[in-house]
Amino acid sequence: MTTSPDYLDLNRALWNARTAPHLASDFYAVEAFKAGKSSLNGIELAQLGDVAGQRILHLQCHFGQDSLSLARLGAQVTGVDLSDAAIAAARSLSAELGVPAEFICCDVHALPQHLPDTEPFDMVYMTYGVLNWWPDLARWAALVHRYLRPGGRLVLVEFHPLVWMFDNDFTHLQYSYFNAGPIEETEVGTYADPAAGIVHQSVTWNHGLGEVLGSLLHQGLQLVSFAEYDFSPYNCFAHTVAQPDGTFRIGPLGNRVPLVYSVVAVKP
Ligand SMILES: C[S@@+](CC[C@H](N)C(=O)[O-])C[C@H]1O[C@@H](n2cnc3c(N)ncnc32)[C@H](O)[C@@H]1O
């Protein structure tokens, strides 16, 4: 597989540019979060169980709302993200709210250099829009395995790879379900604020469920649960229709396709 040599620089610039509009957006509702509202949705809450006292590694934590929501529930959280703007905002939120968490700014692939000799974690937690930034899921699964203690769990909640096959307007299939190499796009605005005046390149990869689950099984992780959901808790696609319970579907697709999936896997 070929990858653009500068993909990390492009993606870092994208996420740095997105951070300020995200902090100001209704989508992320930072003022409500500061007032005590959790950013965790029903899907992940159902997978998490009681996290009090657990050591959690939160990969691709963006500006840390989920990290701090987990910390508010009593977890000891280490959040990791590529974007220095996002990590600066996460540290600032943590300090302002008096909710302690550790934040590391680095490429996930480089985490072993930044976090070399840590006690292993009880949980690796990752949600919504994370795996498509990894060129190679074998490296992802190896990293998850490296940082979990025996008996520790991966909790992953992710947008379904089927969604990423469509064009942005959901009129036709544009991309392969499988990882067919880097997808280079120009992003105008952002999912949290389409009117934000930013234009940036992104480099992502599609990963089918066979690749996701297969790479975890290859590391010897055991699948505890897997589920698909016909809704998204986030209003982050075109042509969404709000459901009475506050979740969203994509109008032309209705409830006929999965939009999100969840995986819990344990390291034996
Ligand atoms: C869609 S966001 C994750 C959303 C998150 N669940 C939230 O609460 O907002 C994806 C995150 O992945 C991060 N990211 C992308 N590539 C990365 C990499 N190579 N290493 C570390 N973080 C990366 C981005 O900076 C961004 O914050």
Automatic annotation (TrEMBL):
Signal peptide from the UniProt entry: none
Molecular function terms, GO-annotated: methyltransferase activity
Organism: Hymenobacter nitidus
Key words, A-Z: Methyltransferase, Transferase
Residue ranges annotated for the Methyltransferase domain, each copy included: 56-152
Keyword set includes Lyase: no
Name listed for the protein in its UniProt record: Class I SAM-dependent methyltransferase
Methyltransferase recorded as keyword: yes
Lineage per the UniProt record: Bacteria, Pseudomonadati, Bacteroidota, Cytophagia, Cytophagales
Taxonomic superkingdom: Bacteria
Gene3D superfamilies in alphabetical order: Vaccinia Virus protein VP39
Single GO biological process annotation from the record: methylation
